[in-house]
């Protein structure tokens, strides 16, 4: 079994390749609506998330820790590992850093949504957050649209300045900003730990696209009910969105929208089954799903082992005793 850390993921898989791994899974018929639910286990330091997924070729499970106090200790908020297994035999193949994998796959999911929903000439990005997800999402957005401007909105001025400097190094005009800057945005990305709406949804231009990835909790949201009411809404899967996405569940509980307000899913967009309307904002809400981790982990594993003379299962079966080892 190989161990793959953050540096390995960055070296083996480009953001574009991660996005294509997700798109390929959806084009080949994967149904996110049928994927196993996430298990949330409260622990003294925060919570453990247990996320299994399987295909004919691979299986895997992510055990991620969410430790809210860690950043104050100089440690990552998300910890844990993803165990990748051979699909036919369920033998371990690789252990991946869960925080790095989550960052890569979340940005790749957003890239798929941005590519399908954002205006072709979208150039002005307002980015809420300045942590690892913000950096990854900036790069994913640049891979899908020819951005020229980025405004960073963060509770921490020092972190915002670091991200602004990084954006300038990428050739963008960049500056720190505030929530009112959404009024001139073509694209808004929210990747924060906020529990309350970050901006006034009535200020979002009709042509703009909003992507929110920061929460998977029913009582927590980054966007307000007005944005959801005004927008065509897109999700990874209806089942998981209506179970976990506070950005949608809170407006539902208020009676602002009904369940039929969801226009479609990521699979619909990738497979070209439906197109977003152009007369109102487009809103994509992501909560993160285990099939995404599996698709990206499998792509990383294939890139790390380009030549295998014998299928993994064949090697093991050739060594197994007749009685199965019992």
Automatic annotation (TrEMBL):
What is the taxonomic lineage of the source species?
A: Bacteria, Bacillati, Actinomycetota, Actinomycetes, Kitasatosporales
Native source species? Streptomyces violascens
Q: Write down what this protein is called.
A: Ornithine cyclodeaminase
- Domain of life of the organism encoding this protein: Bacteria
């Amino acid at each position: 079994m190989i161990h793959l850390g953050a540096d390995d993921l960055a070296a083996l898989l480009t953001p574009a390749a991660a996005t294509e791994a997700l798109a390929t899974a959806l084009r080949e018929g994967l149904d996110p609506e049928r994927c196993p639910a996430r298990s949330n286990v409260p622990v003294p330091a925060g919570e453990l998330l247990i996320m299994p997924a399987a295909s004919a070729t691979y299986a895997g499970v992510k055990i991620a820790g969410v430790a809210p106090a860690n950043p104050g200790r100089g440690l990552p908020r998300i910890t844990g590992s993803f165990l990748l297994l051979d699909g036919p035999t369920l033998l371990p193949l690789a252990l991946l850093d869960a925080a790095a994998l989550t960052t890569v796959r979340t940005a790749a999911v957003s890239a798929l949504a941005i590519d399908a929903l954002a205006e072709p000439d979208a150039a002005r990005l307002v980015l809420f957050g300045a942590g690892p997800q913000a950096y990854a999402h900036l790069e994913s957005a640049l891979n899908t649209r020819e951005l020229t401007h980025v405004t960073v909105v963060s509770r921490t001025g020092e972190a915002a300045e670091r991200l602004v400097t990084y954006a300038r190094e990428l050739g963008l005009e960049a500056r720190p900003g505030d929530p009112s800057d959404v009024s001139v945005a073509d694209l808004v990305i929210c990747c924060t730990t906020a529990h309350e709406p970050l901006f006034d949804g009535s200020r979002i231009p009709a042509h703009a696209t909003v992507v929110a990835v920061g929460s998977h909790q029913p009582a927590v949201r980054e966007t307000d009910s007005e944005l959801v009411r005004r927008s065509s809404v897109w999700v990874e899967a209806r089942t998981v969105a209506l179970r976990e996405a506070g950005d949608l569940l809170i407006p539902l509980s208020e009676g602002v929208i009904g369940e039929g307000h969801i226009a479609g899913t990521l699979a619909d967009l990738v497979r070209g089954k439906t197109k977003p309307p152009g007369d109102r904002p487009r809103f994509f809400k992501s909560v993160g799903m285990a099939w995404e981790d599996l698709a990206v982990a499998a792509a990383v594993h294939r890139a790390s082992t380009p030549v295998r003379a014998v299928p993994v299962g064949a090697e093991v079966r050739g060594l197994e005793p007749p009685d199965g080892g019992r």
